Amino acid sequence: MPNLTLLLLTHNEEKNLQQYWTWLDKCPIITEIVAVDDLSTDNTLSILKSLASKNRKVIIRSRGLAGDFSTQRQFALNFAANDWILWLDADEKPSDEMIAYLNHFSPKHQKNVYSFRRLDSFLGQTLLHGETGWVYFTRLFHRRYGHFSGQVHEIWSSRTIPIKHEEILFHYPHRDLKSFIEKINFYSTIRARELFLQKTPVSLIEIIFYPLAKFLKNYLFLLGFLDSTPGIIHALSMSFHSFLVRSKLWHLSSTSSSS
After folding, report:
1. Which of 9, 71, 164, 192 is a plausible cystine mate for 248, CB 3.0–4.6 Å?
2. Do residues 5 and 80 lie in contact, with contact meaning Cβ atoms separated by under 8 Å?
3. Which 3 state secondary structure label does DSSP give 58?
């Protein structure tokens, strides 16, 4: 049974670390945490240091994000002592069932990658439908058989199809609607820049109809309406994210062509 290194990116995560990371002592298979901190100004660093124990070391590297999460994760891999890697965000918390799975983790092959079902909490309610209701994220892998890719929503890219597990990873991404809108604005800027660098074209039709299609998919086809009021607010917000990405992409393209 291998030991695990946990990869973590942080930026002013004091509240999340205090609230959601008491589970670590239940998971002795994690013998190392490698955290890359994006120049936090709160107590994130001191809390990270407090996660160290007799059987678990904590390595912290401070480094500006520069809008590229996958590069930051790949950078963190350079400091991992273990081959098997678990990666989480500060606003995520594994369920007791997922912790039990990790503690008994015994891979059949080094090339295998493992994904877990993630459920989002939004405005005090767990979303069971919509685009976040039935998604699986690869979070456990051998470091030699893949790499991180994607600037905004980074993923572990591997030739191996992930083995899906039903153990739940809880996600608490937004403390309130204000922070949600702020994140939408932040991530849409990074995503638009990524598409611009890939020379992705955008049209007025896409700016108008892609967000509409996004809303209909989340709210109707993926049954977001079953999540009551938080479901429609979330569906509308994700539609707004799509609108911002394409609007910002259009602005970048038009500015570039006129210069």
Report:
1. 192
2. yes
3. strand
Look at the chain and count its residues: 259
Q: Domains in the chain, start-ordered, CATH in brackets? A: 4-171 (3.90.550.10), 177-258 (no CATH)
Q: Global pTM?
A: 0.86
Q: In angstroms, rounded to a whole number, what is the distance separating the alpha carbons of residues 10 and 88?
A: 10
21: amino acid identity, one letter: W
Q: Do 69 and 9 meet the contact criterion of CB atoms below 8 Å apart?
A: yes
- Widest distance between CA atoms in the chain: 60
CB 118 within 8 A of CB 132: yes
Q: What is the pLDDT of residues 57-86, one digit of tens each?
A: 999 999 987 778 899 999 999 999 999 999
In single-letter form, the type of residue at position 46 comes to S
| Rg value, the chain, Cα | 19
How far apart CA 35 and CA 46 sit, in angstroms, is 12
